[in-house]
Amino acid sequence: DIQMTQSPSSLSASVGDRVTITCRASQSISSYLNWYQQKPGKAPKLLIYTTSSLQSGVPSRFSGSGSGTDFTLTISSLQPEDFATYYCQQCYSTPHSFGQGTKLEIK
Amino acid sequence: EVQLVQSGAEVKKPGESLKISCKGFGYSSVSYWIGWVRQMPGKGLEWMGIIYPGDSETRYSPSFQGQVTISADKSITTAYLQWSSLKASDTAMYYCATYSSSSGFFDYWGQGTLVTVSS
Asked: What distance in Å separates the CA atoms of residue B23 and residue A69, rounded to the nearest whole number?
C-alpha cells in the first residue's frame, strides 16, 4: 500500500495568512492526488482533485500543486470558515489511502 | 442534485451482526461507484473499499478484506456495509461517498453512520 504523510499535523494561523500544507507519498503517484476539508461533525468535502483541479464551488484561494511524491495545498488568504482539518488522498492505486490529516486552528 | 442518505446510528454488542445502508438520490445507480470510508473517534479517514452497483464489482482495502462485506442493490440505488461479528474496535463513523472511477476522488458524501460497539 502507498503511505501518505502530511506535514504539519497541526498548524495555527490567523485570518488573512497564507498557509501551505504538504503531503508526501511513499512512492510516485504521478498527479493522482486529491485534497479534502473536514469540519467537526461533518462529512469531508472534496476541494481539489488530480493535484490542482478545483472542485466546483470551491473558492479560488485554494490551490494545489506537485507531482510524483511531493504535493502542496495552499490557501492564499485564510478566511474564518477555512479552519478545519485537511486530508490528502492518493488515487494512483487501491487502496486509495489518505494522509493522517492536518488540523488548521485559529491563532 | 446528487444526495446520499445513510441509515441511522447503531449501538450493538460485540459479536452481533450489522448492515448499514447508503441510498442515492438524483442519479442513476449505474452512474457512480460507491465507496466507504471509516473514521474512528478522533482519528483520520480510512479507505475501506468501493463497489460498482451496475455489476457489483468490488475492491477492498487489504485492511478491511474479510472484515466487512460491501454490497449494493442497483434497483433501489442503495449500497451496504455489513459485519458478521462486530468488535469494539469497529466503533467509528462510517461514510459512503460517490467515487469517480476516472479521477479516483469521492465527490458526494453521505452524512455518516455512527456505529458504537460496546458490551
From this structure: 36
Rounded to a whole number, what is the distance in Å from the CA of A66 to chain B's nearest CA?
Answer: 16
Chain B residue with CA closest to A94: the answer is B61
CA distances from residue B98 to A14, A98, B34 in whole angstroms, order as listed: 34, 16, 5
Residue A107 has pLDDT above 90, yes or no: no
How many interface pairs between A and B have CB atoms less than 8 angstroms apart?
62
Distance CA A95, CA A66 (A): 21
Quick check: A49 and B105 CB within 8 A? yes
Look at residue B6 and tell me whether its pLDDT is greater than 90.
yes
CB spacing of A101 vs B111 below 8 angstroms: no
Test B109 with A96 for CB contact under 8 angstroms: no
List pLDDT tens digits, range B53-67: 999 999 999 999 999
Cβ distance of B107 and A44 shorter than 8 Å: no
Ramachandran category for residue A12: left, alpha or beta (phi over 0 → left; psi -120 to 50 → alpha)? beta
- Per-residue pLDDT tens over the stretch B99-112: 988 888 999 999 99
Q: Are A5 and A67 in contact (CB under 8 A)?
A: no
Is B112 near chain A, with CB under 8 Å?
Answer: yes
